[in-house]
Design goal:
It is elongated, with a radius of gyration of 30 Å. By secondary structure, the protein is an alpha+beta fold. It has three helices and twelve strands, in the order H-H-E-E-E-E-E-E-E-E-E-E-E-E-H.
């Protein structure tokens, strides 16, 4: 019995050392020979390359989308009778100057200025819808860039999105972007995981291809909640 056990142990140890020798010395030697070169296995670098390509593609897509919608946003600064100032953004939705923003940013009997690409174009307010908190403006410009509307029937939870708006740094308008995903949505609003200051109210929210999903409101906690684009289309008569 002991002799059989010793034989088993000897075979076991020889098997271990044989495996190590084949894996670390014999196989690397033969695999570099011309006859076996084509059978080399290099799976790990392939996986790393794929991950890197996906990461680059996502970043490139976001940069391309931002560049596509770069000139479709306007800054809005409103001085109230009380002396208080409201700041926010709006979205150009037609090449002849239709702009949608939040009604709360352009109340009646206030002094309003529009900022677009270093200019302060003249404008008029066409509609205010207090119930939907939307306003339709018309700036005196033509041949303006626009973005397409996202098909909300294709919207899914987890959709990657970004907001793009204008803030005022010592009265100088500056563009700002933030990105996130759609956490929840229904026919009346879209909730994101983005948090922002109220100065970005009225900024549009886009998908990763630069298509319009809606106009942003920002609650007291800083949560970004978007009014869906179907309501933008409704107030504009699209």
């Amino acid at each position: 019995m002991w002799r059989n056990l010793i034989k088993i142990l000897i075979c076991f140890f020889f098997g271990i050392f044989g495996g190590i020798f084949a894996d670390q010395i014999l196989w690397p030697y033969f695999i570099e020979r011309p006859l076996f070169y084509q059978y080399r296995l290099e799976q790990r670098p392939v996986y790393l390359t794929e991950k890197r390509e996906i990461f680059i593609q996502e970043n490139t897509a976001l940069k391309d989308a931002i560049e596509k919608v770069d000139k479709t946003i306007v800054g809005i600064k409103t001085k109230l009778k009380s002396g208080a100032t409201l700041e926010g953004s709006g979205l150009i939705i037609s090449s002849d100057g239709l702009v949608v923003t939040l009604a709360e940013l352009v109340p009646a009997n206030s002094q309003i200025k529009i900022y677009w690409e270093g200019e302060n174009p003249s404008f008029q307010i066409l509609k205010r819808d207090q119930k939907e908190n939307l306003a339709l403006l018309k700036i005196e410009k033509n041949n303006l860039p626009t973005a397409g509307f996202f098909d909300l029937e294709k919207l899914k939870i987890g959709e990657r999105v970004f907001l793009y708006g204008i803030i005022f740094d010592k009265d100088v308008p500056k563009k700002m972007v933030n990105e996130g995903i759609i956490k929840y949505f229904d026919e009346n609003f879209m909730r994101t995981n983005i948090f922002e200051k109220n100065i970005l109210a009225g900024s549009p929210i886009f998908d990763i291809e630069g298509k319009i999903l809606g106009i942003n409101t920002i609650d007291k906690e800083g949560k970004v909640i978007a009014i869906p684009n179907k309501k933008i289309k409704a107030i504009a008569g699209f």
